[in-house]
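A protein record in our archive is deliberately plain, so that people and models can read it alike. The tokens are whole numbers drawn from a learned vocabulary of local backbone shapes. For reference, a complete record is included directly beneath this paragraph.
>
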Amino acid sequence: MAQRFRLDVNGAAVERELRSAAARGAFLGAEHVLGVSNNRVPLDEGYLQSTGTASVDEGALQAAVSYDGPYAVPQHERLDYRHPPGREAKYLENSLNESRTEVRDLIAAQLRRALR
């Protein structure tokens, strides 16, 4: 005689937990990108670097890294500005592009953890 078992799944609870895990992973990914970017952001007195923040919108499942200040955008976009070695324009864009694998892995790890 075949054995039977019953598996009850609360889909709404699973969805909430996975969404929360994905948001945690996205935030960790944003923090990683911020750390990489902070090592490249143009540096004079350190003000621009001190304004860097990572955030996540759990509802939209979107993470963001941003720098504040009147010269954040020009420092990022102006390729003709000179910077000390290791500092560069496109400090945020380059950091994100080079960190895609790490960000993906951070999100995946949080999702795996939630499924345990």
